Amino acid sequence: MTYKLRTVDISRLQPDTEIRQTIINTSEDRVARVKDPIVLNNYFPYLLRSISGRIAVGTSTVNIGAHRIGMREWRILSQMADRGPLTNKDIADDTGMDKASVSRALKYLEQQNLVQPAPNGDDNWRSKPFDLTDEGGDVYCEIAAQKLARADQFWSDMSKSEQKELIRLLQKLKNNVDRVLNQNR
Predict the structure, then answer these.
(1) Number of structural domains in the chain
(2) What average pLDDT score do residues 121-130 get?
């Protein structure tokens, strides 16, 4: 079945037309309701999300696809490379990913021989830690080198002291966010 869309020029409608009046009322209501709108370019959660999203897209073209892993799997590999063996819960807490996504990614990474269960004497899937295999470590090192080179391009307009200060402030913000969120649990 083929659908044909029809465009209506609302400027030609009569002023008393219901559609035109609805549009006018909606616009006026929105303006009347929003007295102090958030200026998104000054709102740090928006800025962080915007920057993070752009960086993720900009760095996703790095050699991740060649290894048949996505950003979700990359996050897990990088967490393990940084912190060692991790459980599903550890990964979910650290990355902000939901536990089901972490479980699926761990199973996939295990099938690809990039992670393996770490010995801890506990067979419970939820508390079983996983760690990088030798192949997983090699894949991590290859991708990490490319990501670091790409990150250097993002820093190119900042001095070393500005870079250090930004990292310090972001770490401080992360700690504060964790503290506030933990208070609300």
Answers:
(1) 1
(2) 71
